[in-house]
Design a protein that fits this description.
Blueprint: E1 7-11, H1 12-18, E2 25-30, E3 33-42, E4 50-51, H2 54-60, E5 67-73, E6 76-80, E7 82-86, H3 101-113, E8 117-121, E9 126-127, E10 132-137, E11 146-151, E12 155-158, H4 169-181, E13 183-185, H5 192-200, E14 212-214, H6 219-229, E15 231-236, E16 246-251, E17 254-259, E18 266-268, H7 271-281, E19 287-291, E20 301-309, E21 315-324, E22 339-341, H8 343-349, H9 354-378, E23 384-391, E24 397-403, H10 409-414, H11 416-434
Parallel strand pairs: 1-3, 2-6, 7-8, 7-12, 12-13
Antiparallel strand pairs: 2-3, 4-5, 5-6, 9-10, 10-11, 14-19, 15-16, 15-19, 16-17, 17-18, 20-21, 20-23, 21-22, 23-24
Helix pairs in contact: 3-11, 8-9
């Protein structure tokens, strides 16, 4: 008896598109895994995707009945995309990915809609001896994560955050090896200072950047900046989510120091005192010092703009949301008590006309596209950016910082359909990178 192969059922239209004959034996690939299959052709119309049969389910480790895209890949066929979502931790006791739990569930659901398959993993889940990953997955309607072995994916979506001061060396090595083997998008774009210097080279962007310098932690530099701008922000050069930011303001003969760790300001009588307060407020060793932009009215606010690539590799603005900070905080992040409102609402409340608001939004979206294109030069596989802007009392748009791993909670507060789109887009970009 001859060898028995799992069957791949194609419509006549699919077979013609893929260049396959009935009864042909060929290799079928999923991620870095491939098996031999027998092609069966039926005379009926079908969609562009194929359905995973019982035989293919066993051979590939995919759910039976799953619908997947298919394409020709040299001398073999490939189904997918197979997308790995890399994170840093999984809580076994709670069966949860913590703050990213709802996001990951949304990503897996989105990939099913795009006729692909996705799983979540940590660097420690990679078995490099067998080139496979012990990943987490969900079937439609399931509440609890399940685990199984998967091939290395076609594409990796990087949602890895360093939550602890020390990271295991094997974790760092695994991430580097994976990045070399698999198309990995949204890696680190560099420090705040590196990003600022890169953007400052662009004549269209430079006028929208606050004066930003590496902080030498010297009285002279602090005095120069405060004399010029009256207030400055001191930020960890590699900080995120507003952590460790300090605001210093000049108040006649005193200096007000404000952090998110304390509800009230502390007053210092000298800049030497200010420097001591800065060192005590943050564990970071390297800071930037940045001009504080004057805005009209209180409470303070900024804008988070999400710009993402689609299935055709084109940048577009998915949405903008205004974030109003708590009166006790200097940042506007939702996890520190900030509120999300629509773009026009906050500007209208500060006296801007409808025409002015439309002009400001148009300028902000145009600027976001220029920033994304500029940063893509040094980080080619960049699928999305959370960009923070502020509008001063005269209506000028200023760019504050870029985040390659943006949160989406603020968009969900104003429009759930918009939030769903923010989750779909990175999976669409993954389809593009995988050739589907």
């Amino acid at each position: 008896m001859g060898k028995e192969y799992p069957e791949l059922c194609l419509s006549s239209h699919q077979a013609a598109r893929l260049g396959m004959e009935p009864g042909a034996v060929c290799r079928l690939a999923l991620g870095n895994k491939s098996i031999e299959i027998l092609v069966d052709v039926v005379e009926e119309d079908s969609e562009p995707y194929i359905t995973i049969t019982s035989d293919l389910s066993i051979a590939l480790g995919l759910p039976e009945g799953l619908k997947m895209n298919i394409r020709r890949d040299g001398d073999k066929l490939r189904i997918g995309p197979l997308v790995g979502i890399m994170t840093d931790l999984f809580n076994e006791q709670r069966n949860s990915f913590g703050t990213q739990e709802a996001f990951f569930r949304g990503l897996l659901k989105s990939m099913l809609l795009l006729h692909g398959w996705a799983y979540v993993f940590t660097p420690q889940d990679i078995n490099w001896q067998k080139n496979r990953i012990h990943g987490y997955y969900l079937l439609p309607g399931q509440r609890h994560w399940k685990r199984t072995w998967f091939p290395l994916p076609d594409v990796c979506y990087n949602r890895y955050f360093k939550h602890t001061p020390t990271v295991a060396p094997d974790s760092v090595t695994s991430r580097a090896r994976l990045q070399n083997r698999v198309k990995t998008f949204n890696i680190h774009i560099g420090s705040k200072m590196k990003v600022h210097k890169q953007l400052a080279q662009e004549s269209d962007i430079a006028p929208h950047l606050p004066d930003t310098r590496l902080f030498a932690a010297s009285v002279k530099q602090l005095n120069t900046m405060l004399n010029k701008y009256k207030a400055v922000y001191i930020k960890p050069v590699n900080g995120s989510q507003g952590t460790g930011i300090i605001k210093v303001s000049k108040r006649n003969k005193h200096y007000a120091v404000k952090t998110d760790a304390h509800h009230s300001e502390s007053l210092c009588t000298s800049l030497t005192e200010v420097l001591k307060a800065v060192r005590a407020a943050s564990s970071s060793r390297q800071f930037i010092i940045q001009q504080a932009i004057r805005v009209s009215g209180k409470p303070h606010f900024d804008f988070r703009l999400l710009i993402q690539k689609d299935r055709r590799n084109n940048w577009s603005v998915t949405g903008i949301v205004a974030r109003i900070g708590s009166s006790a905080k200097i940042t506007t992040n939702l996890h520190t008590g900030g509120q999300a409102v629509t773009f026009g609402h906050i500007l209208a409340s500060r006296g801007f006309s409808v025409q002015e608001i439309n002009s400001i939004q148009e300028e902000m979206e145009w600027l976001a596209l220029q920033i994304a294109k500029c940063l893509s030069k040094n980080t080619p596989l960049l699928g999305e950016l959370g960009l923070d802007f502020i509008v001063d009392h005269q209506g000028k748009v200023w760019f504050l910082e870029a985040n390659p791993k943006p949160a989406r909670a603020s968009f969900g507060r104003i429009d759930q359909d918009l939030r769903n789109l923010t989750i779909l887009r990175p999976m669409e970009y993954a389809c593009y990178l995988a050739g589907f």
